[in-house]
Amino acid sequence: MLGYFVNLSDGEFWFWTTLLTLMSLLALYFAFRSIHRARLIEDTPTSRIRSAPQGYVELIGVAAMMPGEPIIAPLSGIPCCWWRYKIERKGDKGRRTVRTDKSDSLFLIQDATGECILDPEGAGITPSEKSIWYGPNATPTGGPDKGTGTTHNTFNRFGLRISINTTFGGDYRYSEETIIPGDPLYAIGLFSSIGEMDRKAMRDDMIKGRLRQWKADHAVLLERFDRNSDGRIDIDEWGSARRTAEREVTREQMQEGQQPLHTLSSTGSSRRPLLISTKEEFDLVRRHRYLALTALAGFFLLGSGGVWLVAARLIY
């Protein structure tokens, strides 16, 4: 082995030296990033949703789905708040990724004082459970619990609970992570509330949208507001339509209540990232510290390899 590295050509020597240097620097970057995130989580106090200040805050609660059409995990078909999946195919040189995707739909975090909308775009998401199962097709025909008599192997890895269904064989492996309604949830990110000025702007936009909708269906518009039956909408009749739209929108907002609308989203800065996790705060800090130690070990190992390679080149 020593002879191989000593007799490297100039091109091979610089390739390996550069590769080891870049990999060690990358490991150092990940180490500092993980340490920073662990300290950020420790140093940011937990806020209640109702009284949280505007800015970078930490929230603890449970996951919940937004009203409306439910979010469905694409592989298992279960309703959830968030999902991420990967499909791999077995080949001669191991498994290769066929398809991977993750959810970008909004969902909620709730505590005893209220609820806040979570925008997962740009977030570092750490679910606590992952399901793995196998099948013969590129798209699974059922989830990991399909059929009767299924067998599962469950173990923990780096704080992630992994459940593997080995009942069904096949060349394809399906991996899916989900956040289910009712899961405990930790989130830290940019907190903002929509106040009265924003509500007024939203009300004006809703009124304009309502009028555009009516105008697009001319027959219904004439039926509702053409009082003199001349087949057109004059200025007075259009004013009546506007006042009707204002009343309907105002009534809908009153029914929804006047509680402020809270959102938690990305700051756009790596120094203050958006983090969402189903792990408890202590477990999340411990995970980032473990990742930091692992990355530091990689930095010293790779860096030592680069130094040894240069020394061997100079000595021999």
Report on this structure.
With 316 residues, the chain is α+β, with helices and mostly antiparallel strands. It folds into two domains: 244 residues, no CATH class; 64 residues, no CATH class. The protein is 40% helix and 29% strand. The strands form three sheets. Strands 5-4-12-9-11-10 form a six-stranded mixed β-sheet, with no helix packed on it. A five-stranded mixed beta barrel has the order 1-6-7-14-13. A hairpin with a 2-residue loop joins strand 10 and strand 11. Helix 2 runs antiparallel to helix 6 and helix 3 crosses helix 5. The longest helix has 35 residues.
Concise overview:
The protein is an alpha+beta fold. It has six helices and 15 strands.
